[in-house]
Design brief:
Number of domains: 1
Structural class: mainly alpha
Strand order of the largest sheet: 1-2
Distance between the termini: 48 Å
Number of helices: 7
GO molecular function: proton-transporting ATP synthase activity, rotational mechanism
Order of helices and strands: EEHHHHHHH
Radius of gyration: 21 Å
Shape: globular
Number of strands: 2
Main location: membrane
Keywords: ATP synthesis, Cell membrane, CF(0), Hydrogen ion transport, Ion transport, Membrane, Transmembrane, Transmembrane helix, Transport
Function: Key component of the proton channel; it plays a direct role in the translocation of protons across the membrane.
Subcellular location: Cell membrane; Membrane
Largest sheet: 2 strands, antiparallel
Low-confidence stretches: none
Mean pLDDT: 86
Length: 223
Amino acid sequence: MELLITIGGKEIIIHSSIVNTVLVVILLSLFALYVNSKFKSADTSKKPVGLQNIVEILVGAVNNLVMTTMGENNFKFAPFIFTIICFIGVANLLGLTGLTPPTSDYSVTFSLALITFFITQIMLFKTRRGLGGYLKSFTEPFVLLTPLNVIGELANPISLSFRLFGNIMSGGIIMTLLYSALGYFAPIVTPVLHGYFDVFSGLLQTFIFGMLSMIFISGATEE
């Protein structure tokens, strides 16, 4: 689903991945507002049930994962990790509806990886107490490794984004080819494959992206 808009006599095509990215953001925002209203009116003296129970389990699972992976000092990053996991998870599962997953567009996955990259660099700058310590960290353990350290740091967002992009895009291509090849028989075969490419692989790549983000950020906060 692409959008065609005209500005100043020029036609601008907005790719479906961008449209679907906005759709995911709107859906998650509306869901967050709904959950917030439910929690405000919930009776804290009673055992949580239904949606409240599910949300508490998810939040608790992510909090425990952040605490285990990043440590208590970095627990402040739990909301960021939870947000990025929710976005990528829903974006990956969007393929089940027949829409193009936003994460099958490299510009989306690279933007997500850049967020983690900039957080990592900011924390590295703070941990090294200024520009001097930040630059010096690239010369460790000895100065001859400086080029490799710089390249390694710049390669992190590229590898992080390509891993997510490659898996989601390849799954979408395979499913498209199968629908074209099987024709009327596609509904018989494709549900199982949707379970693998959209659900299993999508959630697995969500977990990997979140885990690597935590590892990169926690590594930057070590003294």
